[in-house]
Amino acid sequence: MPSAYASFDFLFIAEELSSKLGRATVGEIHMFAYLGCLLSLFKGQPVAEWGYSFAGLESGSPFSPELQEAYTELERAGSVTSEGSSVAVTGLGKQQVEVFNSLKMFVPRKLYLGAACASLLSFPVGMVRNAMSMGPGLRPVLNVGGIRPLLAMASLEQLHEHFDALFSVLGQTSDLLVPSTVWLTYLLELSRKRDHELVSRASV
Amino acid sequence: MAQIADELYFPMVEDKHGQKGTHALRELLDFLQSLYKYVAPETRSTRILVFRHVDDTTVAALGDSVECISAQHLPALSTDPIVIQLRTNGRLLLSQTVQIDPILLAQESVVYTFENRIERFYAKNEVRVVTNPAQGYPSVFAVPTFDSLKTALEEYRSKQARKSSCKILATCWKNPSRIFFKNAPESTMRDSLTQFLKICLRGDVEVRPEQIVDESHPADIKITWFMSNRLAFIEIKWLGAAKTSATKLTRYSEGRARTGAKQLADYLNGNAIQAPKHQTRGYLIVLDGRRAKVKPSTKKINSENGFKYENKEILYSPEYHQIRPDFEAPIRMFMEPICQP
Questions:
Q1: ipTM for the predicted complex
Q2: Fewest CB within a 10 Å sphere: which of A145, B130, B141, B167?
Q3: Other CB atoms closer than 10 Å to residue A153's CB: what's the count?
């Protein structure tokens, strides 16, 4: 039985991405769920309260087994349909979102997931992807390869360092998009530097 | 991080207009993406100004404006500057006759301008220039996305390479007439295409510059689709002349493209050993800057010589794209010069 949080998140993000980009892909749903989770950490929520876990793939992308399980179940139940890596929410899925939306337990995560998806207002999706791959936890995966759990002790400490720095610069903000855009821009700068290093190393 | 926050428009808007400001900014950003689906910013030689009043008050100066229900329903636009006020009911007011100072408007509004390919946001007396890492596109809010690598490469050919519109790619030329390349322009070309694909390619994908396939054969760009076993290698070759000194040119003609095809076939063989479970495809990109009758002293070029190779396709032997299932048909991208009569 998949996590109710994972099922809600999958449908919510798929709907948001479809309205912003015309369609959603499975990998992007994992990525925006992870960004939503990080924004909840920024707001001081304990990592355990997110309700499911993430791992970092070799490519520097986040992946949640629970979210993937929810996807399989939602597809089996006819709430989403897939074509290649694209996902579309069906009429049944939209009804489910409406029911979920009426439940109090999902209210806080709508804030985080909504802000995560709203980063597409400022950045093309490719830039969000590049930025995220430079985040603590994902960057080591990208550098050394292999799959490892995200939000483990070392990367969590680094994340909190980033978030402390963000908070000290911005203070309390009325909109989560403010810290989110600053952080993603910071990570994009790291991505640009990494590409430069990769090329320099390969040219030697 | 402090410097980044200081240079970004989001913190500025929140600082100057508070929550009402960020709410207005979200609506403004959402609208800009719609607007640029119907109005190509690169076609505008005059200013585009879009604003959202934080209290949704109509600005008196827009008295003679036209009301529209969405960007899709804008009337035919003249070449005059565009001023658009967004309303909370989703409607917008358009004027092409008023001249408004963005700083004055920004006292109670969040204001966006696009002028001379520079984007700015204003709030109160503050202004921030928008950083646009999508070098080939005039606005970061008008960047298209592509599902398929082939479609993305075709877009790169027509919109970025053809007129060297990508700011990175433009730097590979020795002079503005685009007659000679600079010495060793390949890394600049690779950076341009890498940047484009990183930003424009959608899906579960990673784009990395110059990866080692084996010790002797680095491909220029490697693309990995992480939720499948798909890989792509891109090999870039340039044709034309590079000016290595005042009196010397390095010239590459179509033999160079054929060498690139052989190299790519070898990379693919190397990768088949290292990653046998992956479905790999190779793409040969030929950036074609060939010109006829040029010497190191050439300063200008006419159309006949500048465009002599525009439609001159390259014959490959062997035709790997015909005999190998993992080899895509090579894509030649002719790069136009600026000609003089």
A1: 0.88
A2: A145
A3: 7
